[in-house]
Amino acid sequence: MTKRDILKALITHYADGNKSRFASMLGITPQAISTWEKRDTFDIELIFAKCENINATWLLTGTGEMLAADNTTAQTSGDPLVDRLLGIIEKKDDIIRQQAEEIGQLREQIGQLTQRLIKNADAADTSVTAHVG
């Protein structure tokens, strides 16, 4: 399964096939989705952070099920130490998701700023040169 296939499946599942809605869900432009499709790639961290219950292995490799098994039922082990460690792990996972989302947004901003910089450099008037001396 190619990245393009994975992206198409994500758009179908999370936005009923609507690319603009999927882009909005991720907090990026629809043009970014089109660029991902053309380049056969996508921002894994951003998608992992924004798409609830996504199976990380499927997202990385395209193998297995798209959605992770639902382990959200609050169960306790009966051991206070284990329960405390599980709570710490859950908080850590939340922080990782938030950071992945921020990384994705920053990458999008960098891409937009780079495009703007290139556009401004292309529009610069080079017919006038400075005379030194």
3D architecture notes:
The protein has 133 residues and is mainly alpha-helical. The model has no long low-confidence stretch (mean pLDDT 87). It is built from six helices and no strands.
Calculate the terminal CA-CA distance, rounded to whole Å. Answer: 63 Å
Q: Tally the helices.
A: 6
Using only C-alpha atoms, the radius of gyration works out to 21 Å
Describe the sheet with the most strands: none
Low-confidence stretches: none
Strand-residue fraction?
Answer: under 5%
- The SS-based structural class is mainly alpha
Mean pLDDT: 87
Helix content: 55-70%
Q: How many β-strands, per DSSP? A: 0
- So what's the overall shape? elongated
Order of helices and strands: HHHHHH
Q: How does the SSE layout of this entry go?
A:
Elements: H1 3-15, H2 19-26, H3 30-39, H4 44-50, H5 56-61, H6 80-123
Helix pairs in contact: 1-2, 4-6
